[in-house]
Amino acid sequence: MDAKIVLLPGDGIGPEVVNEAEKVLNAVASKFGHSFEMPRFPMGGNAIDSHGNPLPDETLEACLASNAVLLGAVGGPKWDDPNAKTRPEAGLLRIRKEMKLFANLRPIKTYSALLASSPLRPEIVEGVDILFFRELTGGIYFGPSGRRDGENGEEAYSEMVYSTGEVERIVRLAAAAAQNRKGNLTSVDKANVLETSRLWRQTATKVVEGEFSGLNFEHVLVDAMAMHLISRPGDFDVVVTGNLFGDILTDEGSMITGSMGMLPSASIGSDGPGLYEPIHGSAPDIAGQGVANPLATILASAMLLRHSLSLEEEASLIEKAVDDVLAAGHRTKDLARGGASLSTTEMGEQVLAAINQA
Question: Fewer beta carbons below 10 Å: N end or C end of the chain?
């Protein structure tokens, strides 16, 4: 396969972890006879510095013309001025909109070798393997918002808005994924209070019962789900929810594994290229020190191969290599718990060795 994968290293530790994922992708391409063209483009704070725009037109055009996009991270204290004309996060919102990426896929998976790293007891987190589907382009983050004068002073408002079409498309993706996993789908809402959630629940039920009747399907209120993620995370398979609830629940779920440095994510649409990235952010406090964990970005590259290029064997090889490296006891600083640790590059080299030996 010939494929164009646009690399957006971004800010902070982004360039460091993307470097290791690029090496892994090149190793997989060599092993399986593929050809991956991987040009780099600016995005985020570095793009503000160089172009005055967190998502320059040339970057967006390259992304739209690619097969997939791998992003490091954006943002940092340098660009945090609330009075600034633009901020790195504006580039993220725009690229999601322009690429029509309405579904964020975030796996929450524990590794046997890292059970002790979780803040929860090993018997609670052992075997956890949840795939979250978060609706990404609707809800309260994109509804009408503003400020106005009120009886008690200035008021601010943000409206949560969802249409049946927006709910249908994310639920269909989640239900299809559940069919290929354990067959269990959980929809999370706040239907006891919010009208948008009542529409969400009604629409999700219609889609699943009409098109995916073989699934084990349930509705769970978001506050109950927040508790269940801590008390019994192993009971869940595929979870689908809206933008706000998904944002909060997936960050909560990320702590189950013990380190955000282990968790990738994918943002996809109905067609066109997907956007793949680690969830850990730019981590400016450790940028340039060579201690960042590259595994989340390497695992994001596996998701890229699976979801955008339909290369399941190649994706599974990367995931197994990561598992093998952890089982062998290799750790970066975030996982070492005060013990011996590898640098970003050294951890990448261990994954490459596992791939080449497979």
Answer: C
